[in-house]
Each structure stands twice: as C-alpha cells, then as structure tokens.
Amino acid sequence: MEPIIHLSPIFTLIGIGVIVAGFLARLNPLLVVTLAALVTGLIAGHSPYEVVSTFGKAFNQNRFVTAVWLLLPVIGLLEREGLQQQARRLIASIRAATTGRLLMAYFVFRQLTAALGLISIAGQAQTVRPLIAPMAEGAAETRLKVVTEPMRRTIRAFSAATDNTAVFFGEDIFLAVASIAVITGVMNAEGIHVQPLQLAVWAMPTAACALVVHFARLVLLDRRLKRMSDEAEAGQ
Length: 236
Known about the structure:
Blueprint: H1 14-24, H2 29-43, H3 48-61, H4 67-80, H5 83-92, H6 99-115, H7 124-143, H8 149-170, H9 178-189, H10 196-234
Helix pairs in contact: 1-2, 2-3, 5-7, 6-7, 6-8, 6-10, 7-8, 8-10
C-alpha cells in the first residue's frame, strides 16, 4: 500500500515529542502512548491500516500483558477495604522491626526471586505501594516518637528504591532474562564468544555488592530517621 506521508526518517522522533507533551499536559498515559505510536507509524510511511494491524498483532501475541488490568483493580479494592492499615498493624506488632530491617528483608526476597526469573511476583504497583511502604511507615511509627511528612516521603522513596535495586542487580543471574540475551548477542557479534551461564555467574558478585551497599544505606536510613524524629520532637 502506498504510504500517505513522505517525510525524512528523522521526523519519526516526533513521536517522542508527543509523549513528552502528553505527559506534561497530564493526559491519560495509555492515550498518549497510543497516539505517539500512531503518529510515528504514519510519519514512517505506514498506512493507518498497517499501524492498527501492528497494534492488533502485538496485542494478540502478548495477551498476558492484559493481566495487569485485572490485577490493578484488585489491588485498588484491597486498599479501599483497608489493606494498608492492616499492613501497618502487622508490622507494628513486631517490636524488633525497623524501617531499615524491613526493607532489608524485602531486598533479599526480591533479589532471590528475580534471580529465579520471578520478576513479576512483586513490584511497585503489586507490593511496594499497597504493602511495603505502609509497613515501613508503620515500623517507623512504632519505633520513633514523631514521624513527619518529610520522613514519610523518604521512607516511600527508599521502599521504591529497594525494589528497583534488588530487581536490577538480581535479574541478570537468571539465564533467560532479556538483558542476558542482548549482552550475549552483542558480544558474540563482536567476536567475543560467551555463554549465558558465564554472564549469569559473573552477575552474582555484582548482586552481592549491591546487597551490601544497599544494606549500608538502609542502616544509615534508620539513623537518619531517628535524627529527624528527635529534631521534630525538640521543635514541638
């Protein structure tokens, strides 16, 4: 089919501008990404039929992605019925728990499961927002006299960072992850022949270093929260 638009390939980058403008305008992300894909496809010389057909083919081949649309409403319903409050109560009943210790335990769990290829078993939407962050805040409320809003924001940021760091450095231990395949392909193309197992083995020391460094950051987090709490109490 004859392309409707004849433009230089550089103009396909307009799709990125559509995404930036849409996010700045706070439009629906799904609508923005879909519009950017349509614009990019048309500028690249494809007909509307070809662009929509590509969407349909991708959707049909990756139908498991739609499981997210079932998961998110369930999490929202659980939150509405008091999931976060129950998580706070649970961690408050464990007197030895601190924010740092809780996040250390979650880091180990997340890194081990990522190393086994179970990346989607947890995540920002599934566990951090509804469970881990509220439990970390609950631990702070139990151990500290005052928990201010800046302290809560810090705890939430560290909760999200714990998940990201654990997955990033843990997933390369799993042989079938996409990053291992990409690294293997690039190195073999350059004449450096490596096996996925070799890369996975060498990813283990990196993951161990990430664990040690992040544990040190979480120890410092507990001290920082204690200092912020004492300063807030003194200022009252």
